[in-house]
Amino acid sequence: HRHLLGIKDLSPSDIELLLDRADDAVAISRQSEKKTSTLRGRTQINLFYEASTRTQSSFELAGKRLGADVMNMSVASSSVKKGETLIDTAMTLNAMRPDILVIRHASAGAAALLAQKVGCSVVNAGDGAHEHPTQALLDALTIRRAKGKIARLTVAICGDIGHSRVARSNILLLNALGARVRVVAPSTLLPAGISAMGVEVFNTMKEGLHGADVVMMLRLQRERMQGAFVPSVREYFRYYGLDAEKLKAARDDALVMHPGPMNRGVEIASEIADGPQSVIQEQVEMGVAVRMAVMEALLDPRRNPEGVAG
Ligand code: CP
């Protein structure tokens, strides 16, 4: 079975193929009749151990638009609450013969572990601070549609890089497609060895945003921080929150992105989130299209990019 566990498994041509397919899915999603029969008769199970608004709902809609039967496992009211393990839960669902299992989990490697155990395709919808591949694909689709290309664009990824699977998947994808990737954060929010990922590192927004084509803000993940370093919201916004003044350093036509959920007034000012350069709502729309493209590539043998595999 084919899986999508991380961007690291995809070649540049796999990525481009998925984005091309997603462009078609955008067109389908903009019609009044949105349903196709590509995955008719197939069963998709969404298994989300962490909260989600965008990812879970867009995977559900994507499956439905492809004609699949979609089941959302309600983890909060499941036997996980009685102590059932991830593997036992997955094996139980696997016995019901799904074709695709979409998993979000707080542990890095959870999706890869399931892929070894179940007899269906597995899609990683976010595993700890490791990868969130469909987020990076939808971000790339948003950029490509707005700018016409990814190669040679300067993309500044700003904020809580250390806790961010979104940052990690985006760095891998943007580098694969030839963008110039920067990360902008206080050193306390940068993971060790970040430079080895092929990014330029900046500690101030003014330097990091200078001349940028894309400014990608990240949520400050305070819930993942322990004791010692939890920045005060006021200080964080002052130095790293994206407001009109800081955005001036980027190109006038720079895109402003945020994967959501946003902390307004923490990492981004409301006037910027809702302003003319923001493509945050487009990102959400592209999320459905990219997930349609991914699931179609995994399950429809006529449309399999080579590298979409575990
Ligand atoms: N961007 C993202 O993954 O959002 P959710 O946590 O709401 O799914």
UniProtKB/TrEMBL annotation:
InterPro entries: Asp/Orn_carbamoyltranf_P-bd, Asp/Orn_carbamoylTrfase, Asp/Orn_carbamoylTrfase_sf, Asp_carbamoyltransf, Asp_carbamoyltransf_Asp/Orn-bd. Its EC number is 2.1.3.2. It catalyses: carbamoyl phosphate + L-aspartate = N-carbamoyl-L-aspartate + phosphate + H(+). One of its GO terms (molecular function) is amino acid binding. One of its GO terms (cellular component) is cytosol. One of its GO terms (biological process) is amino acid metabolic process. L-aspartate binds at residues 82, 165, 219. Keywords: Pyrimidine biosynthesis, Transferase. It is an enzyme of class 2 (transferase). Carbamoyl phosphate binds at residues 54-55, 104, 132, 135, 260-261. Residues 153-297 form the Aspartate/ornithine carbamoyltransferase Asp/Orn-binding domain. Residues 2-144 form the Aspartate/ornithine carbamoyltransferase carbamoyl-P binding domain. It comes from the Bacteria. It holds the Pfam family OTCace. The keyword Transferase applies. Pathway: Pyrimidine metabolism; UMP biosynthesis via de novo pathway; (S)-dihydroorotate from bicarbonate: step 2/3. Catalyzes the condensation of carbamoyl phosphate and aspartate to form carbamoyl aspartate and inorganic phosphate, the committed step in the de novo pyrimidine nucleotide biosynthesis pathway. Reversibly catalyzes the transfer of the carbamoyl group from carbamoyl phosphate (CP) to the N(epsilon) atom of ornithine (ORN) to produce L-citrulline. Heterododecamer (2C3:3R2) of six catalytic PyrB chains organized as two trimers (C3), and six regulatory PyrI chains organized as three dimers (R2). Belongs to the aspartate/ornithine carbamoyltransferase superfamily. ATCase family. This is Aspartate carbamoyltransferase. The gene is pyrB.
